[in-house]
Amino acid sequence: MKKDLLSIKDLAAGEIECILKLSYELKRNKKKFSKALAGKNLALIFQKPSNRTRVSFEVGMYQLGGNALYLSPNEINIGIREGIKDVAKTISRYVDGIVLRTFEHKNCLDMASCATVPIINGLSDFSHPCQGLADLFTIREKLKQLKGILLAYVGDGNNVCNSLLLAAAKTGMYMNVASPQGYAPSQEVIKQAQTFAKETGSRITVTDDPVSAVKGAHIVYTDVWASMGQEEEINKRKVIFKDFQINAELLAGASPDVLIMHCLPAHRGEEITDEVMDSRNSIVFDQAENRLHVQKAILIKLLKGA
């Protein structure tokens, strides 16, 4: 039976652990897995452009001995040129897996229900599970553990924040989210995270005070204030989010060795300053690299059924 990756909430704690362990092996010994997906083909169906997601999946498939085929927004034009049900059924006849990067999470759910091959959510408006898993891997790589680590997320309660909340709750991390009023994560996600947290000893806090959120934090994380599809809100959000910038003043209340994360692309001078982004505490580009290793682990797990 095929398995999809649409959201971290669908992964058991043991499955997350298996992905993280395999990611470590893949990063340490690339040659060992050079034929792991020989003869396998992966379709990348993107409604939204990408740098890291496209490159890391294409390179990842190549390093595993497989092939990736990129289908740009204009080539399929889901919902206009062709319905998602027909796309899912057709592409399933050609490839062994599909990465869908889309605006609406419903598209992921619909494609997964119709496709006969595994579907990987490469980003939707609700969830970014590949990013969340790569973030877990990066944090454990740097701090040697997850349980009890305090992660402070400062900014928009968006898809990345949703995935981090679920990832933190499932692995026993503590997570503080600071967002302006009206821009917090959805109550649905918060409730899901709090339910998982009861099982793992995690602690989830949501506030509109960034100073309290970063107090004592081991990791401070941010993302752009306006995501793709929210371009008309950029100027409005710059005003609303101005006190939520990751800068030296805000970080004064965090742990002295606090690590800085950002899923990229970054709008320097908005949600994060150059000083912080380029500091010795920044692990932003290690985090970006780890997308490759973690996604290779996901591909092996889903396309081989390992």
Offer a quick outline of the entry:
The chain is α/β, with parallel strands linked by helices and 306 residues long.
Word description of this protein:
The structure is a single chain. Helix content is 43%, strand content 14%. With 306 residues, it is of the alpha/beta class. The chain folds into 2 domains: 8-128 and 291-303, Aspartate/ornithine carbamoyltransferase (Rossmann fold); 131-287, 3-Layer(aba) Sandwich (Rossmann fold), CATH 3.40.50.1370. Helix 7 links the parallel strand 5 (150-154) and strand 6 (174-178). The radius of gyration is 19 Å and the shape is globular. The mean pLDDT is 96.
Tags for this entry?
306 residues; alpha/beta; Rossmann fold; 5-stranded parallel sheet; 4-stranded parallel sheet; 13 helices; 9 strands; globular
Detail the topology: elements first, then pairings.
Elements: H1 13-28, E1 41-46, H2 52-63, E2 67-71, H3 73-76, H4 84-92, E3 97-101, H5 105-114, E4 119-123, H6 129-143, E5 150-154, H7 159-171, E6 174-178, H8 187-200, E7 203-207, H9 210-214, E8 219-222, H10 234-240, H11 248-251, E9 259-262, H12 274-277, H13 284-303
Parallel strand pairs: 1-2, 1-3, 3-4, 5-6, 5-8, 6-7, 8-9
Helix pairs in contact: 1-6, 1-13, 2-13, 4-5, 6-7, 6-13, 7-8
